[in-house]
Design brief:
Helices cover 0% and strands 36% of the residues. The protein has 206 residues and is an all-beta fold. It has a 7-stranded antiparallel beta sheet with strand order 7-8-9-10-11-12-13, with no helix packed on it. Strands 1-2-3-4-5-6 form a 6-stranded mixed beta sheet, with no helix packed on it. It is elongated and about 90 Å long.
Amino acid sequence: MLIIESNESDGAGLTILSDDDKKNKIHFSDGAASGKIEYNHNGNTMSFHTFNHERLTIKSSGFVGIATDFYSTTVKAPLHVVGQGGSTGMSIDSTDVAAPTVFIENSNTNSKDRCKVVLNGDGNSGSVVELHHADTRRLGLQSHSTGSILFTENGPLEISSSSASGDFIKMTTDSVEAFRIDNEQNTTITLDDSANSIFNVVDNKG
């Protein structure tokens, strides 16, 4: 056990001194894999390690990386999270009646400035935003390599756009395409064979 005590007005302290191109480290070990706190003077970066892996890093700019090696990773934002094996992400939960909230604000009054949420999926499956109730998906928005889809669970309603076979927008109900507009403004309405299929055009212009 190490105890550092001081009667100075600003309290006690501990300094580890090295050259400006070296690293200072504090290790925690049980004889096997260790934890570590490391300060890299070449770039002024502090990192925290568990089980011999870098888990959190703070750059000299104040940017924070979680689950990423910032020595080899390009910093993209003040908070940068990189994971492996499907573990990437952030969970916000609330145990009381208050709703957990992610709040994004741009306090600049310039009319050209705005807040943005960007999801970038490089694979063919693209990106998905889902709204759930009681752990069940109710509404989703997906972008993929050839277009985008707004859908409800189990296919009651789907609105999609695509460039795979000519640009078009279509609406699907109960997994059956009912309405389509192509890039030449041609409109197709599909009715099934049921006697209850009705197509109405209503003029409300008076």
